[in-house]
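Example 9 (inverse folding). The structure is encoded as follows.
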């Protein structure tokens, strides 16, 4: 056997051992990913309403990841107040549910399972009551109180980036797009806010509403 062939064989052997050692090192650094529960609460949609209009949105969420599949359930309730439609005091009280699933693409990558990239969708079921109070200048007229109720159904598509820290607390950012598939009941005034969908009359136009909304959320939570 020529000396060059021997050297070549030893070189291949060395490369093979190096590859095996690297695989072992990767396995030590990145252990097998586990199934997890994620419990979180919304911040981005809550803080501005509290600060600007003395209103609130509470939106806890529970997720379960098994392999690369993410199952999510979200409950929300809101009490939104604003002055819109020319001197009418507006209030929206509602609850909603979001049920959906997504794919965690980071599960299939060789990483430490702390940077999750999720693409998914939700079904949205919401119910809300709107109250409008029109105050007249003369006290003897009294105030006109108008109410209307809606039950809305729709779908939502989202992309979620979640960063999990060493202590298993996490923060996530989620841009999303929602489409309402039901019609509004608006006998007295256009719907301003739809629970679970967001502001559907963003320009405060008194003639029409939107069926498509675009928004984002920031959540903080804990991974079990």
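The amino acid assigned to each position is listed next.
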């Amino acid at each position: 056997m020529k000396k060059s062939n021997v050297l070549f064989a030893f070189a291949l052997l060395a490369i093979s051992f190096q590859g095996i050692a690297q695989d072992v090192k990767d396995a030590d650094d990145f252990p097998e990913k586990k199934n997890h529960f994620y419990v979180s609460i919304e911040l981005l949609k809550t803080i501005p309403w509290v600060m600007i209009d003395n209103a609130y949105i509470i939106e806890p969420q529970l997720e379960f990841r098994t392999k690369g599949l993410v199952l999510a359930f979200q409950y929300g309730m809101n009490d939104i107040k604003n002055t819109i439609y020319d001197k009418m005091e507006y209030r929206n009280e509602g609850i909603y549910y979001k049920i959906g699933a997504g794919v965690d693409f980071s599960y299939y990558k060789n990483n430490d399972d702390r940077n999750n990239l999720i693409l998914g969708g939700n079904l949205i079921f919401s119910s809300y009551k709107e109250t409008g109070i029109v105050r007249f200048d003369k006290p003897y007229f009294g105030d006109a109180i108008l109410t209307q109720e809606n039950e809305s159904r729709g779908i939502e598509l989202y992309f979620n980036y979640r960063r999990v820290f060493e202590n298993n607390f996490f923060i996530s950012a989620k841009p999303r797009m929602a489409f309402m598939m039901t019609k509004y009941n608006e006998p007295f005034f256009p719907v301003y806010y739809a629970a679970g969908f967001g502001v559907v009359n963003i320009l405060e136009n008194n003639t029409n509403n939107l069926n498509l909304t675009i928004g984002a959320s920031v959540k903080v939570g804990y991974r079990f």
